[in-house]
Amino acid sequence: MPWAVGGLRLGRAWVAAPDRAALRARWAALTGAEGTERERLFRPSRSRTPTTGAAALPGRRSPSTARFADAPGPCPDPVRVLRDPFDEQWLLPDQRLIDLARPELWRVLDEHQLFAVETPELLVTPHLPAGRLGRIRPLHRRPGGAEPNLAPGLLPLLGERYGGWVTPQDVLCWILAAGRPGPRGYEVPLTGDTGRWRAGLELGHRLLTVQLRGGPGSEPPRLPGGRRPYVRSAVQAWPEGLAYDPETETLSLGTGTVSPVPPGAWEYEVQGGTRVLEAWFAARTAHRDPQAEGLEALGPSAWPQSWTSELPALVTTLALLADLAPERAAFTAGPPLPAAELTAAGVLPPPRWARRPASVLDHHEEGPGGQFALL
Question: Phi and psi at residue 171, in whole multiples of 5°?
Answer without folding.
Answer: -65, -40
